[in-house]
């Protein structure tokens, strides 16, 4: 097992990474103050891992709350199911909410914990690669709105992040690839040597090699923990973690939540951010193409939906958390390994980026 720390003073917490951690109750118990525990999971994950986690929490009074699966259910209606479960079981302010699942479960369980009786403890037990390397760390919680992704939520840190890498053995290949989009992101924004490592180890990662996966998760979580420790509420450097997300969230919102997986939309959105960075002269076309090829090797899409026009993108991008005083800020690359957040760019470059021939960039046929 490897352990990292998210350093937030009195609210600091550990990230444990390793095989078989679901079966180690001694890792969970120190982070649970009361007797009551609610495990929030979904219909897909519950049959796989709910019983194991419940056994590890046998000393507590455990209530399972099982949600429908999918990004399309990340809304107010599903959030109410968590409150219904907590209130029906008469959970008090000393309860602990445990999120067992991917990013949707973690975001909603964390938001519910932030709101229930004005805030109760919660623990993240992420079971997808994307949630393990990104959404479970840093305290961003929330739900989607029909007009924009993750526009309703709260910053609310967990007590613990417990990452059992064996849960990836049951993850569909498409979901694994979606998680790799966020892994690649870290190499692009702050760790060029990691990008080289990913190029050397992509086949091993897609083949579920445990050593490679553990190394990638550890390096990704370390990068995010450093950024969150420096900028918890995204007033500065933390916004660079959103490379590709403004374009990607537009894709998710326009196409319908869940049609494109989050990581798929982020991959394509990152390609768009790379294209804009190249058009601004900040990175070379060779650097742009290097990243595109790595996304393709990870099994990810790199071409925006043909259904979306430049006007569609602009409409959705205008409803983004990085828009301040009407100015659309974008995360771009000054160079590989160095991201920046800026609203200082010519509008014609953005329009050219939205209209670029990404099929040609990806060397796709037909």
Explain what you see.
The chain has 366 residues and is an alpha/beta fold. It has 2 domains: 2-170, Rossmann fold, CATH 3.40.50; 173-361, Dehydroquinate synthase-like - alpha domain (Dehydroquinate synthase-like, alpha domain, Up-down Bundle), CATH 1.20.1090.10. It is built from 14 helices and 13 strands. The chain has helices at residues 25-28, 46-56, 76-88, 103-115, 129-135, 173-190, 192-206, 210-230, 245-255, 262-279, 285-297, 310-317, 347-354, 358-361, and strands at residues 2-6, 13-18, 36-42, 61-67, 96-101, 121-126, 140-145, 148-155, 160-164, 323-324, 327-328, 330-335, 338-342. A 7-stranded mixed β-sheet has the order 1-2-9-6-5-3-4, sandwiched between helices. The chain has a two-stranded antiparallel ribbon with strand order 7-8. Strands 10-11 form a two-stranded antiparallel sheet. A hairpin with a 2-residue loop joins strand 12 and strand 13 (338-342). The longest helix has 21 residues, at 210-230. The N and C termini lie far apart (47 Å). The mean pLDDT is 95. One of its GO terms (biological process) is aromatic amino acid family biosynthetic process. Catalyzes the conversion of 3-deoxy-D-arabino-heptulosonate 7-phosphate (DAHP) to dehydroquinate (DHQ).
Q: Under the CATH scheme, which architecture of the largest domain would be assigned? A: Up-down Bundle
Task: Characterize the biggest β-sheet.
Answer: 7 strands, mixed
Q: Count of helices?
A: 14
Overall geometry: globular
